[in-house]
Structures are given as C-alpha cells and as structure tokens.
Amino acid sequence: MPVRMGLRAGDAAKRPFRLLLPALTAGMLFAGAAVSPGPTAAAASAAVPAAASTNAASGPAPFVQVTAGAYYSAALRADGTVWAWGRTLYGELGVLEPRVTSSIQRPVRLAALRGIQSIATNRVGSQVGVGSDGSVWEWGAGTGPSALPKQVKGLAGITAAIPGFALQRNGTLWYWSHPLAADGTSEAAGVPRRIPGTYRFTGLTSWSGLVYGLDEHGAVWGFGLVNQPSGAGQTLISPARIAGLPAFKQISAYQNRLVGVDSAGRVWTAQVETDALYSRSTPGPLRLTGKPLRAGTPLKAAEAQLVDYNTLLIRTAAGELWTTGTWLTGRAGRLSGPAGVREAEAGIHHALAIDAGGRLWGVGGNQWGEAGSPNVNRDRLLYRPVPVLPAIGVSVNGSPLSSGYPADLRNGRVSVPLRDTIRSLGGSLTASGSSLAVQLGQARAQITAGSAQAEVNGRSVALNSPVSQSSGAVMIPAQLLALLGVNTQWDSSSGELHLDFPAAASAK
Does the entry feature the keyword Signal, yes or no (predicted)? Predict the structure, then answer.
C-alpha cells in the first residue's frame, strides 16, 4: 500500500457523505416476530434497523484509505478506526490468531486500534498504522508471536510508516525486525534503530522486505531488510537513490517490479535486480535491470499499480478505473461501477476503490472474501466492481466489541457474534450438541443453531432472524439480547450497534 504523506483520517470528514438508516422504534425490532407467551416488545428497549440499504456498503462513516495484499484487504475510516476482511489463515488481518479460521468475508473492526491516521501493508501479510499521536502499531502475519495489533515501542513523532520502517517528522528514518524462531514463527521485535541520514519522502510503498521511497523531487529510493544467506537473521539495505527512473508523482511495487506515474500522467514500469540481494552478505544498493518502459496506454493516470506481473490497474485523473490486462476481470478496459474514484489499491488478483462519497468497492478475485462481497458465481470472481459489504460496528458499555468476527446485516436485521458478545456483557455460554444455553445476569436463553425459535426465561420466542453461522462464528440476532435485558440501540449516524448492560460493567 503506497503511503501518502500528509493524509489524515480526519481530513475526509469534510467530504459531504452520510448514510441515514430509518429512525426506528423499539416495537419495530419485533416486526414479523411472534412472542407466545414471553416478554413484551415494550420490555425490550432496542432500536435495531428493520430495513437498511446494503447498496451504500461502506456505512455512514466515509473511508479515507484502502490497502490490499495477498488475498486480504484493510481500510481506514474517517473516525480513525481500521477494518479488515479476506484471508486470515496466517493471521493476516490481525483480528484473529493464525489457523483459528481461514477467512472473514465482511469488514471487521480491529478494536485495539483507535485514532489511526494512516495504514500500510507489505502486501504479504504484515500491516502497520500510524496514530494521530505519532505512535506506530503493527499487526498481521510476521509481526511477532501474536498477529494482533501491538504498539512498536521506542517510536514517537512518526508521520509515516511501512512494515518494518517509520519516518519521523524531522526526516529521521527508523527500522525494526522480527527474527525467525527455530520453528519458523516470528519473534518479538527488537528495539527500533536509526538509519543514518535525513530523508524527505513524500510517499512509501513496499513488497515484502523491500521498500521504495518517493522524495519531493520525484526520485525513487530503495531500501529494506533481506534475509541473510546463512539464515542467521536479516540485513539492512541502506537507502539509496535508484538511477535511471523518470521523476514520479506516485509509485507502487509488485515482486521485483516497479510502476510509476510521472507528472504528465504517463505510466512507466521497471524491473529491479533482486537476485543478488539474497546471495550477498552485504546486499544493496537496489538497481534496475534494463531501462524503464512506457506502458502502452493513452490514459492520463493519477495512480497505477500492478495486479500481477503484466496487468496494470490505473486510476485516471478523471476518477475512472481501467485495467490493461485480463488478470483482474477477464478483460481489459474500463471498469464500470464507482464514480469519481479518489483512491484505488491492487491486491493479488483483486482490487479495491474508494469513491467520491467514501464508499468501498471491490472487484476481481474473491476466493477468500478479499473483494468484500458474497460470491455470485462458481469462479469466485467479481467481473465488475460491487459495493463492499457493510462495516457494522458494535460497542459494549461504550467500548468497541473485542471480536475477530464482524457483525452482520441481512434482510435489515443486525446479528452479532454470540460468544464474544456474551463474554463482553459478562455472561456465560454452555453448549450441548447443537443447543446453546446463554446466561446473562438473571436472564436465561436456550437457542439452537439454524433455528429462529428460542426459549427465553422459560418462554417460547420466535426470533426475527435465525441463529446462524458466519466465518466460523455463531451469530445471534440483536433482538435476543434485548429480550435478555440488554439496552440495544442502533445509531444510524455512525453505523454502530450500542449494547448497554450495567451488570457487565459492575462485574468487572
């Protein structure tokens, strides 16, 4: 993910975008539900949407930055929250530890991250974010013993970061690494070290351990961390200007290839000599193999990225999306769908975009849900951009729900992950076969996976949506929480389901 200096989450709040869901009453929560005998609708103080448009997929808060890698995606909203979806087999998303589940197919919030102003990825599983206070956070595969977000200690006053590297406001560049343990897992990061010199980068991008910086004059600099041939750790490649390239205003990387856009909007590609980097005890500096080549397109580009070794994703100055090959959607040409695209990002076989209203769109490969949409064909390929599924937030007693599983909005009803939600509310859960018993304060419920019937405090209740499964988690309708005494309110201005249960707070 290219890092653009000066971008802050709050900047996008000035853009005129707002999605309003209907203002609902508590009684609407039970639309179509029969209760016999049991708690009355008045006893449940919930306000959960009975209907909502899934077409405005990104939710009320506009997204301001998007990033993508090998079958995963992440995005930053104007409120400083980070959301992720796609493959999480190796912990790429930073919401679950490796092997817990293989993928998350709708945006889930990283509850530990707040006040983030920019995010970046190395496109092979590692993510990093810079907080509004200048702190640095990392998460995902290869970021230590845990894939969950943690602060990189010893860094302050940071304005931009890429996995393994951070740039201070005064131009000081720092790096840190995660050595591999004997079992192949990554260890905790060492103390960040300063790289000699001062650097005025206006943009950063990376692929795996190699990083490319774009300076204020349009020159490209190469640096990074590579594994030593002996396997005894990593070696720093010191920053050095890469000779032979035009002056660029935007760059991106894919394996050993660079793509850049010059001031006239022309797109160039170049190949970096990388073989020697992994065979010398003292690698670097980065050099080109041959001369850069002009891409054969008349488009005036604002940014360009490689979807694979030969296929380009181009965002034009007019906010259109184009692809030059068949790898993304099966054909070259303009991608229909979002208008006024202001940011685009290519993963591997998929791409994402943010339109003028701050909404997210996905296109291309969707085998792991990385494009953010249900699969509509056997190919698991989105042939045209579609809105990413809604990013629905859940908070418990004023704090974000800590869960690796996202809330779900289907048929106008919000469902939440059972285990993590009940735990956060201070309740307990026991299972017996397909039957689940929930205890929350003095209230009790008995539910069965796949059923829209429940027993609440000994009374039979018809739920407005069935107990289901999504991404490996059991999901329950918010209505059930209301019947158990939880104050449940839907905030249409933030796309957030607020759960308030004082007994949970007092029990802590």
Answer: yes
User: What b/e string do you get for 415-450 counting C-beta neighbours within 10 Å, with b at 16 or more?
Assistant: bbbbbbbbbbbbbeeeeeeeebebebbebebbbebe
Q: Are residues 436 and 332 both part of a single domain?
A: no
Give the whole-angstrom CA distance, residue 342 versus residue 248.
Answer: 18
Instruction: Show the beta-strand stretches assigned E in 428-507.
Output: 428-432, 435-440, 443-448, 453-456, 459-462, 468-470, 473-477, 487-491, 496-500
Nearest to 128 by CA among 94, 154, 97: 94
Q: CA separation (Å) from 234 to 179, 206, 256, 266, 267?
A: 7, 17, 19, 36, 33
Contact residues for 23 (Cβ-Cβ < 8 A; gap 6+): 492
Q: Is the pTM of this model over 0.85?
A: yes
Read off the amino acid at residue 393: G
What Å distances lie between residue 107 and 58, 131, 257, 300, 377, CA to CA?
A: 9, 20, 30, 32, 21
End-to-end CA distance of the chain: 40
Query: Domain range spanning residue 46?
Result: 34-52+394-507
**Total number of residues shown for the chain:** 508
| Residue 46 burial (C-beta neighbours within 10 Å; 0-12, 13-18, 19+) | buried
Q: Specify if 57 maps to a domain.
A: no
Instruction: Specify the CATH number for the domain of residue 455.
Output: 3.30.457.10
Mean pLDDT in order along the chain per 10 residues (508 residues): 51 32 28 29 32 39 95 97 97 95 95 97 97 98 94 96 97 91 76 96 95 97 84 84 97 96 97 79 84 95 94 96 94 92 95 96 96 89 94 95 93 91 96 91 95 96 93 93 94 87 62
Task: Look at the chain and report how many structural domains it folds into.
Answer: 2
Closest CA to 74 of 109, 41, 43: 109
